[in-house]
Amino acid sequence: MAKKASKSNVVAETPTKPGGGGQSAPAGSGVPQQNDTRVMALDLPAGTLSPAMQAYFDKCQEKLGFVPNVLLAYAFDNAKLEAFAAFYNDLMLAPSGLSKLEREMIAVVVSAQNRCYYCLTAHGAAVRVYSGDPALGELMAMNYRAAKLTRKQRVMLDFAVKMTVESDAIEEEDREGLRRVGFSDRDIWDIAAVAGFFNMSNRVASATDMRPNAVYHGQGR
Amino acid sequence: MAKKASKSNVVAETPTKPGGGGQSAPAGSGVPQQNDTRVMALDLPAGTLSPAMQAYFDKCQEKLGFVPNVLLAYAFDNAKLEAFAAFYNDLMLAPSGLSKLEREMIAVVVSAQNRCYYCLTAHGAAVRVYSGDPALGELMAMNYRAAKLTRKQRVMLDFAVKMTVESDAIEEEDREGLRRVGFSDRDIWDIAAVAGFFNMSNRVASATDMRPNAVYHGQGR
Amino acid sequence: MAKKASKSNVVAETPTKPGGGGQSAPAGSGVPQQNDTRVMALDLPAGTLSPAMQAYFDKCQEKLGFVPNVLLAYAFDNAKLEAFAAFYNDLMLAPSGLSKLEREMIAVVVSAQNRCYYCLTAHGAAVRVYSGDPALGELMAMNYRAAKLTRKQRVMLDFAVKMTVESDAIEEEDREGLRRVGFSDRDIWDIAAVAGFFNMSNRVASATDMRPNAVYHGQGR
Amino acid sequence: MAKKASKSNVVAETPTKPGGGGQSAPAGSGVPQQNDTRVMALDLPAGTLSPAMQAYFDKCQEKLGFVPNVLLAYAFDNAKLEAFAAFYNDLMLAPSGLSKLEREMIAVVVSAQNRCYYCLTAHGAAVRVYSGDPALGELMAMNYRAAKLTRKQRVMLDFAVKMTVESDAIEEEDREGLRRVGFSDRDIWDIAAVAGFFNMSNRVASATDMRPNAVYHGQGR
Amino acid sequence: MAKKASKSNVVAETPTKPGGGGQSAPAGSGVPQQNDTRVMALDLPAGTLSPAMQAYFDKCQEKLGFVPNVLLAYAFDNAKLEAFAAFYNDLMLAPSGLSKLEREMIAVVVSAQNRCYYCLTAHGAAVRVYSGDPALGELMAMNYRAAKLTRKQRVMLDFAVKMTVESDAIEEEDREGLRRVGFSDRDIWDIAAVAGFFNMSNRVASATDMRPNAVYHGQGR
Amino acid sequence: MAKKASKSNVVAETPTKPGGGGQSAPAGSGVPQQNDTRVMALDLPAGTLSPAMQAYFDKCQEKLGFVPNVLLAYAFDNAKLEAFAAFYNDLMLAPSGLSKLEREMIAVVVSAQNRCYYCLTAHGAAVRVYSGDPALGELMAMNYRAAKLTRKQRVMLDFAVKMTVESDAIEEEDREGLRRVGFSDRDIWDIAAVAGFFNMSNRVASATDMRPNAVYHGQGR
């Protein structure tokens, strides 16, 4: 049993600093560095931006410090970019019975079902920043069922997940469930619209291998 | 064996006219009539249309004879309607390497995966009308794998279905498969955009129980 | 914004007549015509029909105007044809607590789960004709949960679907559910027998690429 | 470490005789005895058998020592019993390019996918008896992929499983795969027919909670 | 109808002795004999056993008549064998609110979900021997929902299955369900630990093609 | 279009600092704070630690600054804790052809399939720290298929995922795939052992609602 005795000198868990031993030092880890330098896997030359879209990009640069890659992806065709931006901004930023944080929570929970790297990264950051609670962002991305939520929020997210995994099984009873916890029919539309949108956006991002701006990883930590 | 002898007087298959016998006459069929009189299950009063949207509805009425219910559903909020219409029209009607019929085929195949009554009805009609081939519409809605298609069309639809059922598993090899049969990167974007869109639209329609205009059922038969 | 202005001249939805524009005219649609001229993908020479089976085929021709392809598929072996026809006719046409329409509804709902082109086409037609309601046939094939049904019919179809997708999870509680809405044990047998049968027939049809008689597409529209 | 030392006196695996210790003696095991005394969960009084069916039951009793419960289940209606028996006997016993053992192997592999207690028990026994190899029966019921099979048998069973879990995805390439290992089109029909049949029979058995005759458990061990 | 008449001389079900006809005699069955002579598919030379492990193997040989193959599989590395044996023996044999039979029932039900040949064979035998009821072992392996169980046992097995197929959906309500039928928190740990363990063991066995000792097949029949 | 003009003043994406507007300020976000103060949902009083285990906990505290909650969870029973720690430390820290980083990558990829909050948090941190690449940790947790990996690493992770989602379908060809990219049979054992272990650990963690130490969230960012 000498072996076991020696083993009790070994600490079971994660190292406290990079490398943690010669066997797995970063330089020699053998795993390629994950630098997301391309916007996406499709080779689509940038189109000519309309003045409105150019101003929009400038505003992003000024306020965020970067232009989100999803906008750069759409920039090969100004009409598509404009339609996307208008649709997106109305959905996520216009007045609604749902707070911006709640809309972002739906975004992340749907993206977790679809395992979308772009959206989990960008909108996970948004949840962390809007809530000021890093663990909330992780929980939405990892398993929202493990999060502490109000009953109303939980019912909202369950509806979004049901829309994602078996939308054909949604019935009046599901809408009634939303109404019972206090959502209006207009709120239900907004929940459905956000959950629906990320079921689109996740798939377009995965289909084109869209990569998130690296800055998102550190936001709100 | 008298029973079996009598059975040989019975024809195995479908009746040739409604009712086919007292047991299941329409009037007494016991199944409620399927009249889709509501636009959707949410009670959202119509908003005020902008002149552009009013003109758009008038044009629909004039050229189609009706306003598609999906537009009526969005009409509770003119900004949302406008954003949706702009996004949709660019997607399905703007110039593309994909024909309008091919975009509608993607729409129906995706909607079949998601079992969306609204979209299967409206876009199944579009496939029948654009192609002039009623069976093609049925095949897209029932099982596209049973249809006769060119290799290129089949690869396109397989990609749309993979986006629908396991978008997280799409990789460069899938995009290469599209390129090998002749799609450009711009075409791939359009395939992804249409398949993505109906993954949104199917879910919003199911979440709100959106009902198709009855006229679609007979179109292109 | 000139582009968008021009777009507001475009009507969002389906064309009203075949072709709808040079881009997707049927002749040049590029999609092969869907003419189901083969009965199935297996090359099995027709066997010699017994007098009883010959009379049966004659009766089909006389009353329906055609012999259903499923019967032609089995005709390579008279014993198999006879066994199939006897089994099928007892199931779908013999006296039962379920109306013929209800049995056809089960057939279509099961076939929709299994995405069987042959059975959806042939039995979708039967639902349309028996009910006199084309939309009912579409709803059974697209998403039966979106149909207006009596509670009893809905419980019946839910049982048929559960049998189709997870028969190993059926328990006494499921049978009790059927009894509570008024089905007798004999009715339950019949529901199980019809749902079971189409789980066989769908699979044999798909495995052999059985093609429906084209005439079904237009029946009951 | 006294605890661990004492543990090394404990043998890790199964006991060699019933009970194996007071804690789990059969009499006090606390698990109800699994005596399958009912034929099924539906209360359907036995009908009057035709002379042919009575003779058939007598023959079963004489040659097998019992009447299989599936036949007793159908006996509430002589016409259904007759149709079932004729269909079944043609399928499993008539001349075919597939041996009876191969047909039983398909039966068990399909029944394992559907987790059907009745069919796994009755047809698992058949595989053991026909093959004289108890382990083969277990492997078909537990995981056919772990069995040693000829390439031809494996392709046959893979086709049966694909029919069971995603019949809508079967295409010409799958049939070609069967032809390449030596199956004729007639053999393919028989494979499809047997796999299809057990997809029916499994579901009817589960829907009615059909119980296997207890004698099957010990056959061919 | 001469054919059918002759068919009534054929008994529908399983043969009573091996071979049952020239067509499928064992010798000529064409199916390879299922002799599990290898321990697993990985070629790992046996390591040197510590005295404790050697004594353990000797004890197995003496009391069981064989060393279970899972132990032989681990024997390439004495430290791994020791860790596995200690973990396993504590789990399955240490005092617990669950009887040894109940722990084995969980083992088999989990292994059935994962279709693990090794574990179904070895632990199916344990259920048969501990309970003295061969049918119970079969039911756990085939479809535990078809077994007669106390309410408490059923809730326990349902929890084990939910852990197996969708562990991320387990919530406080599931634990409350266990408490309501009488399980303590310590019991819940033990249920979780056993169900978790076989989700590991099933996968290691399948990944390495571990083969059960042939003697298990006949135990407890 | 005045509305849209005003919308172009709105930036589409995530806020740059907590709160980002009165509507979703943390204090008033309405989402409960995610403070993981309990170790797990089962109420099991801490047992008496053996001197070896007490020393082990002290070592954790000294080197990591905390005792990982999984160890605290097992601490209700010293024998179980000891067996778990020995098993775990051999698996993840003993010499192996796989680096510690690679073993942690398997841990996270498996935990992502099972959506285990505890393991994704603790082992996601380990991947970030061992690799020195925060994005690598995110990619393993979100969608490993989107990561840049060597061919050998990808094949390893695909095997781990196949073990997780359909272990019964693993065959010699899968092991051959590992050998072809350079893994020895001993390496294959280690891959299988790590992937198997986290399929256990994920499930025990989810079944008991085990919560990660909060410190993990920030490690390696």
Report on the structure:
The structure is a homohexamer of 221-residue chains. Chain A is an all-alpha fold and 221 residues long. The radius of gyration of chain A is 21 Å and the shape is globular. Chain A contains 10 helices and no strands. Residues 1-10 and 18-26 of chain A have low confidence and may be disordered. At the A-F interface, helix 1, helix 2, helix 4, helix 5 and helix 6 of A face helix 1, helix 2, helix 4, helix 5 and helix 6 of F.
Give average pLDDT of chain A, whole number: 91
Tell me the span between the first and last alpha carbons of chain A: 44 Å
Q: H/E order of the elements of chain A?
A: HHHHHHHHHH
> Which structural category do the helix and sheet elements of chain A fall into?
mainly alpha
* Shape, principal axes of CA atoms of chain A: globular
Count helical runs of chain A: 10
Q: Which stretches of chain A of 5+ consecutive residues score pLDDT under 50? A: 1-10, 18-26
The tally of beta strands of chain A, per DSSP, is 0
For the largest interface in this structure, which chains are involved and how many residues does each contribute? Answer: A-F, 88 and 88 residues
Fraction of residues in helix of chain A? 55-70%
- Rg for CA atoms of chain A: 21 Å
Largest sheet of chain A: none
Strand content range of chain A:
under 5%
Multimeric state of these chains? homohexamer
